[in-house]
Amino acid sequence: MTTTTLLTRIALDDALVAEDHAEECGFLDPLDRITCPVHRRWIHQCCHSDLHVSQVSGHRWCRPCKRALEVAVDEVLGTVALRCPKCARGSHTRADAQLITACEASLAAASRAVRRAA
Length: 118
Ligand SMILES: [Zn+2]
Ligand SMILES: [Zn+2]
Fold this sequence. Notes:
Shape: globular
Helix content: 40-55%
Distance between the termini: 9 Å
Structural class: alpha+beta
Number of domains: 1
Bound molecules: zinc ion
């Protein structure tokens, strides 16, 4: 168990460094990152934070309702869903799709690290 945790950590650290670099060099859109430059975690582990709500870009934001979208991360199925608590809409904007793609990729990367350790 300790080994698993350690290897997952190393995988995360590697991904963070690689994405920091790619973003700085202009190769990577910050919103395509699968690691979070603020929380230093996999994006699916911290996308629930208010810091990940952006009214400007529409990420985790329902514009008509002016409400933050709820995120449901299913670690077993490896899926991520968004939902507006007011109008109950699911994901349909490009920002939603971008966030879900990033979260599902980070889920996959994190579970790959665990499987490698097992
Ligand atoms: Zn974060
Ligand atoms: Zn809404």
